[in-house]
Design a protein that fits this description.
It is built from five helices and ten strands; from the N terminus they run αββαβββαββαβββα. The chain is an alpha+beta fold and 176 residues long. The chain has two domains: 101 residues, Homing Intron 3 (I-Ppo) Encoded Endonuclease, Chain A (Alpha-Beta Complex); 53 residues, AP2/ERF domain (GCC-box Binding Domain), CATH 3.30.730. The strands form four sheets. It has a three-stranded antiparallel β-sheet with strand order 3-4-5. Helix 1 crosses helix 3. It is elongated, with a radius of gyration of 21 Å. The chain starts with 12 loop residues before the first helix and ends in a 5-residue tail after the last helix.
Length: 176
């Protein structure tokens, strides 16, 4: 039995724009003063705006390192909210952070990605191991589920550089 994540649909872009201000250069979301119709009571409206308006929004860090938080008692990750704020469209299934820093929500750091592309842009430590039988460092990567051998090297650093070079050649912009 496999566990499948269900994508949470975001509120419409106009609603999000009434809640947040986003700075593309810094990647920071700020709570706007929200209108009365967002709240069940006058008291909730006043208390919420006094406490949160003008402050940074969605600042909790989830288990994957992404910034997240709640809006109207529903949990959202910040980069998906930002995608919809900027484009007006539901975000793609995966949004890759180019620099591999999941809390860096600057617009230029985002790109739509497939699962494979997102996995490629993950860890620099993958794809290098010591081959005891030969006394050398081996470099490799995967393409379409198949292991691609990138050579054996005298040092770990040389194997890492070979892997980086090979991965860049195979995967272009999505390489680490």
């Amino acid at each position: 039995m496999s566990v499948r994540k269900i994508r949470v649909l975001l509120p419409d872009a106009a609603y999000l724009r009434s809640c947040f201000r986003y700075n593309k250069r810094t990647g920071i979301l700020i709570w706007k003063k929200r209108p009365r119709e967002h709240f069940a009571t006058q008291r909730a409206f006043g208390m919420w705006n006094a406490r949160y308006a003008g402050k940074e929004a969605l600042t909790a860090v989830n288990t994957y390192g992404h910034l997240a938080g709640t809006l109207d008692n529903k949990k959202y990750v910040a980069h998906r909210v930002i995608w919809k704020l900027v484009t007006g469209q539901e975000p793609p299934h995966l949004i890759d952070h180019r620099n591999r820093k999941p809390s860096d929500n600057r617009w230029r750091n985002f790109r739509a990605a497939t699962k494979g592309q997102n996995n490629i842009n993950s860890s620099l430590s993958r794809g290098v191991s010591f081959d005891k039988s030969r006394g050398k460092w081996a470099a490799y990567t995967k393409l379409n589920g198949r292991k691609i051998f990138l050579g054996r090297h005298e040092t770990e650093r040389a194997a890492r550089l070979a892997r980086i070079s090979g991965v860049r050649e195979l995967f272009g912009d999505f390489a680490p």
